[in-house]
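In this supplementary section we document a worked example of the pipeline. Step one takes a protein sequence of length 210 as its only input; no multiple sequence alignment statistics are reported here. Step two produces a three-dimensional model, which step three serialises into structure tokens for compact storage. The input and output of this example are shown verbatim.
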Amino acid sequence: MAYPTVSAAYGFRPVNLLGGQVFAGSTRQMAIASGHATNIFFGDCVIMSANGCINNATATDTGGTIVGIFMGCSYVNTAGQRVFSQYYPATISNTVDGPNGTVAYVADDPDLVMKVAIQSAADAAPSASQAARSALVGGNTTIVYQTVKGSTATGDGTQGVINAGIALATAPVKIIDVVPDTAPAAGSFVEVLVTWNQLAHLYRATTALA
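The serialised model returned by step three reads:
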């Protein structure tokens, strides 16, 4: 039987919630600052900045500021029309609040379970990053932020996770299961299910944004 091939990382995809609860597609509307200078792609991890607007997560955002997964946005174009988009195109200049605000749709539930591709390094194909279930499940892991952040043609991001569980307590995600449907060989996997680790999510953090 032929199985799907995972040829590249695609960001984070919400699957369900911890405990088997259903993810009904609920998102929260969050502001994007006027003129935000970096594209944000579907499936990207995003953080909350001190100004109350979302921002791109980076390798230094290990905990306390990640607020969820970017699921698209809407903004007002130069013709005054509201546009709904799979990704945020950089440098949209609008007011933050009010009818002309740029709005992100973020899957922000801290109990979210997400499917993601595993990789060995930035820009490495998932097929080169096979790992055994025993090396993955229960481990904490870090997010791979690739050189090419996403595709403006599809709007999809390219984030993944590294291919082995690690003991670092501040790693932002925890692997809770593997995805057998895309396993390239018996006992090895290229996709995993993850959730937010400990205090990585803003809503679980004990400190306020500075």
